[in-house]
Specification:
115 residues; mainly beta; 5-stranded antiparallel beta sheet; 7% helix
Length: 115
């Protein structure tokens, strides 16, 4: 059976600055049409843990989490919490941004617990 690859984010003109900043390991937010550097700090707003694969590309990741982090600046960002077990995640948990380089073109911002 051929390997099924995970879909990468689609870079468009409207989100290009976000993904370029992520490649530099910087988190930016769009504020009134301008991109501004964010602190990288936030807290878990809500999350879920997937225990069943809904796509073959994620079958080896089970269980995995998907979370919304409320950034210190206010916006919510959908992401994953890394650096802890899923059972250790809780709403209100303080987190900080980390970056996962997937390809030379795509880097994902993820969040880890603040120790």
């Amino acid at each position: 059976m051929p390997e099924i690859k995970k879909q990468l984010p689609q870079v468009t003109e409207s989100n290009k600055a976000f993904w370029e900043a992520a490649r530099r390991h910087e988190l930016v937010i769009n504020k009134n049409g301008e991109w501004e550097k964010a602190s990288g700090w936030g807290e878990v707003f809500t999350f879920c843990v997937y225990r069943q694969s809904f796509h073959l590309a994620r079958a080896n990741d089970i269980p995995y989490n998907v979370a919304y982090v409320k950034l210190e600046e206010g916006p919510l960002l959908m992401t994953n919490i890394v650096g802890c077990e899923n059972k250790g995640i809780y709403i209100g948990m303080p987190v900080e941004v980390v970056f996962e380089d997937l390809t030379p073109e795509v880097t994902l911002p993820k969040f880890k617990p603040v120790k």
